[in-house]
Structure formats: structure tokens, C-alpha cells
Design brief:
AAA+_ATPase, Rossmann fold, ATP binding, six-stranded mixed β-sheet, 3 domains, ATP-binding, nucleotide-binding, 516 residues, single chain
């Protein structure tokens, strides 16, 4: 199938998400759509899949202009899409998920499960997907669930397959397997549109690369282009992708976590008997696939999630039963995983958000009154120090880009003396240029003697920042390893192997993980 998008434009109010985008997908190629979160990649693909309607422009398939008003239209035209958040029924088998919505029946109206079983088996064998048709989806790893989504699309005879940020929830080993699957699909003639912001993966798999920035196509690139060249296209300026930091000089233990157990709202053990130490002047990075207890660990440290058992101490003082306010006042800074939910008040001004946890005390507040002059003075200083791009400190923080919103959160937390900085997914949804700045400030805080705990699902970020790495799997810390531990070993630990098992396995069965 030859697919062409011509002049596609989509606006949401005053925001132009896609601005006259042209894109050509050739038969049997892997075309990477590269750009930072918010660049307009998913909006463009949602139009192609019929989830959104363009304001203008056209879609042409094999020379014929088509109108795609729904996913059903897209499927009929041979276009399939695997969303970042899977759309499977957990309590159904793989075969039942594949037949859902187009059930075949035998005599007497009985569901023809055998037909679905056969279809899954045939597609699995043809494309090397290795999926058990009878497995319950809820019992399969995330990487297998993604394969089920791919089979579901292929079962509709998809000739163009859209993969939207497909590696976001995968371990390094699963990413390696996915790349193998994509190559097999390409060899069988399927075209793939691979949406991502990860440079290493683009270089590993792309036949062609189109870069989108702020809703516009800003260039085409070859897979041979360097990561620095791709980053410059994404951001619009040269970017230093390597964090410049000296070896850590760790001192006394600041944070000590002993036997920490957290039960989540569903009654499951999210954090299971975890022991950790973070010293002054070091960065401990917690690695793992999303959903293995890292979020609950960070929230428990701040008192946002109740502790079922264990002890949390800061510089020897027991914080286990202290309130969140008391923990912040004891010298903990917190950059939350979801800045929109927990990091700022979107309708408050930039200046107000910069003192959200400081306004009760001088110089910003006195009793029930706020000292607006001091709040404005602080805002001007922080905007300059952290290079926060804003048209004015009195504008709502919702008017800023994602990177500048994150700078507001970090600037606020670093504007007071800290003993411990807890930063969860500190650069999620942030452009490459802002990542460069944020990483530099986190390292600077470490060098000033603060203990830093980073939670991240991005191995590039872990490798850039960590002095030591703790890997979590199903609520447990399976090992704490040096920062220079190879990616394939980290990947095996993220899948549950101990550090010794991972080391031995990586030596015996090396993979391509280190290259991506």
C-alpha cells in the first residue's frame, strides 16, 4: 500500500496541533515519526486512524483520495493501530480478544473459539510473534500483550501498522524482541509507522525518519544521522546529550528505608519489604518498568501513600508517621510523576506556583496575608535562574510548555535548602533541550551535598544521572548495582532476575540491547 498525507491540519481552539503536514509511507518500510511529546505525532496518527477529523488536507491511498471518519473506516482501508495504552480485556484469552466485536458462531449460536484459535496461531507463526491463543491476557507480560494488539491489527489484514510509543512500557529485552517483530513484519510487506521520541530506537529500526516539531514537519533524516543531529532537528538548536558530571563524593546516609511495605488501593502489595539507603552527595536511581512499585515508593517517602510496614528515616529522624507538610519542612523536595495532577495548580500564576509550599512563611507570607512584592521578586529570580520561558510571571502556569512547567516545579523545590530530593520521572513529556537543563540542575544539587533519589523508566536517563541503580520488579528491589552496569543486565533485572543471575545470563547470551 502507498499512503500519502497531504496538508493535514488540525487545531484545538487556538492551538494548531498539526500544521499542513505532508507525509509519504511507502510499501514495506518502517517510517519513524520522531518528535518530543506534544509535537503533534499522535494527533496526526489519530487522524489517519479516524479517531480525529482533520480541519483540512487529504489522505490518499494508492492514488485514490479517501475519507476516514472512524477506526472502522481505517481498518477497511488496511490501516491498523496499536495504541500506547492497550485496549484488551484482561480476563479474556488472547483468542477471545482477537474475536471480540466480530464473533463467529457455530450451529446453535455457540461461539466458534476454534476459528479464533486457528487465526491467532496462523498469524503468530507467520510473523514470528510466539503468542499462546489460550493464555489469559491478565497473566501475560506486557510485551506479549503488545503482540496480541499487533495480531489483532493484522487479523484485519492491516497493510499499514501504526505503533504509538510502543516501547514506553517495555523492558529492554522486550524492546529488543519488538524490534525483531517489526523487522519480520517489514519482510512480510507490512508498512510500519513508528511513533517515538527515543533516538536510539529510531536509529536501530528506521528506514526513513520524519521529524515533527510544534506541529510541523521540520525535516527528513536518514538512520545514519547521529543522535545529536536528530536532537537538533527535534529542538531547533544544538543539544548536549551527555550529562557532564564528576564522580560522586558520597558522605553520610541521609535517607534510610527499612522493610518498607505499601498496600495499594486495590489491596495488592505495591512495595514489598524494600530496604534502601541514599547518601549525601549521590544520586540513587530507581529503575524498572512502569507499574512495579516505583510510584508507590516515591509517594510513600512523601507521606502521600500510607505505609503498611517498615520505617523511613531522614538524617536519623523517623518520618514514618509524619505528614507530607512535615516531611517537606524537614528538608525533602519532591518532583512528582504527574506534574498536572500533583506538581502545580494550573490556574495559578507562574509566580504563585513558585511558592506553593513556601507561602505560609516569611518572606512570602505573614499570617493570613501574602507579600506579593516578595513573591514577584522570587518569581523573577527563578525565571532567570532556571531559564523558564514565559511571557509573564502573572500568566497561568498552564500557558507554559511541558518543559517550562517542569522547570517551575523543579525551581520551586530547589529554592530552599534540601537534605533529600525525590524526583519521579523528572523529564517525562519534556523536550530534549529542557532535559539537558533539568539533568544539569539535578547533578548540581547532588554536588551541593543533597541526597538525590530519581525514579525513571527511561534507561537513558538512568545512565545519565545515576551514581548507583536500584532495580524494582513486582514491588521488590531485586538488586542495587553500579551506574556502569550494562543495559542488557539491567534489562534482565527489570524482568525479575537477580543481579548475579542477570550478570551470568548477559555473559552467556549477549543481546543487541547495548546498541539501543
Amino acid at each position: 500500500m502507498h499512503l500519502e498525507l497531504s496538508g493535514l491540519t488540525k487545531s484545538f481552539g487556538s492551538l494548531v496541533a498539526n500544521d499542513h503536514i505532508d507525509l509519504v509511507i511507502e510499501p514495506g518500510e518502517i517510517h519513524c515519526l520522531l518528535g518530543e511529546n506534544g509535537a503533534g505525532k499522535s494527533t496526526l496518527m489519530n487522524m489517519l486512524y479516524g479517531l480525529l477529523q482533520p480541519d483540512s488536507g487529504e489522505i490518499v491511498i494508492d492514488g485514490d483520495k479517501v475519507r476516514i471518519t472512524s477506526p472502522s473506516d481505517a481498518i477497511r482501508h488496511g490501516i491498523g493501530m496499536v495504541h500506547q495504552h492497550f485496549m484488551l480485556v484482561p480476563v479474556f484469552t488472547v483468542a477471545e480478544n482477537i474475536m471480540l466485536g466480530r464473533e463467529s458462531t457455530r450451529a446453535g449460536g455457540v461461539l466458534d473459539r476454534k476459528k479464533a484459535h486457528t487465526l491467532v496461531t496462523e498469524l503468530s507463526d507467520r510473523y514470528g510473534l510466539a503468542v499462546d491463543p489460550d493464555a489469559l491476557v491478565e497473566n501475560t507480560p506486557v510485551g506479549i500483550q503488545q503482540r496480541v494488539e499487533i495480531i489483532k491489527a493484522l487479523s484485519h489484514d492491516a497493510q499499514v501498522l501504526i505503533l504509538d510509543e510502543p516501547t514506553a512500557v517495555l523492558t529492554p529485552a522486550e524492546i529488543d524482541e519488538l524490534i525483531g517483530v517489526m523487522r519480520q513484519l517489514r519482510e512480510n510487506g507490512t508498512s510500519i509507522v513508528f511513533i517515538t521520541h527515543k533516538l536510539k530506537e529510531v536509529k536501530a529500526i528506521a528506514d526513513k525518519i520524519t521529524v515533527i516539531r510544534r506541529g510541523k514537519v521540520v525535516g527528513q533524516a536518514e538512520p545514519s544521522a547521529s543522535e545529536e543531529e536528530l536532537a537538533e532537528l527535534m529542538v531547533g538548536r544544538a543539544v548536549d546529550l551527555v550529562v557532564d558530571k564528576e564522580p560522586a563524593q558520597p558522605k553520610d546516609v541521609v535517607l534510610r528505608v527499612e522493610g518498607l511495605t505499601v498496600i495499594d488501593e486495590r489491596g495488592f502489595t505495591a512495595v514489598d519489604d524494600v530496604d534502601l539507603e541514599v547518601r549525601a552527595g549521590e544520586i540513587l536511581a530507581v529503575a524498572g518498568v512502569q507499574g512495579n512499585g516505583q510510584t508507590e515508593l516515591a509517594e510513600a517517602l512523601l507521606g502521600l501513600t500510607p505505609v503498611a510496614a517498615g520505617r523511613i528515616s531522614l538524617d536519623g529522624a523517623d518520618l514514618t508517621t509524619r505528614s507530607t507538610r512535615e516531611r517537606l519542612e524537614s528538608g525533602i523536595g519532591y518532583v512528582p510523576e504527574d506534574r498536572w495532577q500533583d506538581g502545580f495548580v494550573d490556574s495559578f500564576s507562574v509566580a504563585e506556583n513558585l511558592v506553593l509550599d513556601l507561602y505560609r512563611k516569611p518572606p512570602y507570607g505573614n499570617g493570613l496575608s501574602l507579600r506579593t512584592a516578595e513573591i514577584e521578586k522570587n518569581a523573577h529570580a527563578r525565571v532567570e535562574e532556571f531559564d523558564i520561558r514565559t511571557q509573564g510571571i502573572d500568566l497561568p502556569v498552564s500557558s507554559l510548555s511541558g518543559g517550562n512547567q517542569q522547570k517551575v516545579v523543579l525551581a520551586r523545590e530547589l529554592s530552599r535548602p534540601l537534605q533529600l530530593l525525590v524526583a519521579s520521572q523528572p523529564t517525562r513529556g519534556v523536550d530534549v533541550g529542557s532535559i539537558e537543563f533539568l539533568h544539569g540542575r539535578i547533578v548540581q544539587e547532588r554536588d551541593q551535598g543533597t541526597a538525590v533519589l530519581i525514579v525513571s523508566t527511561e534507561l537513558d536517563e538512568i545512565a545519565a544521572l545515576a551514581d548507583r541503580i536500584a532495580v524494582m520488579y513486582r514491588g521488590k528491589v531485586v538488586g542495587v548495582v553500579p551506574a556502569d552496569t550494562p543495559r542488557d543486565e539491567l534489562g534482565l533485572m527489570m524482568a525479575g532476575a537477580s543481579k548475579h543471575e542477570a550478570h551470568d545470563e548477559a555473559i552467556e547470551h549477549p543481546t543487541t540491547l547495548g546498541t539501543i
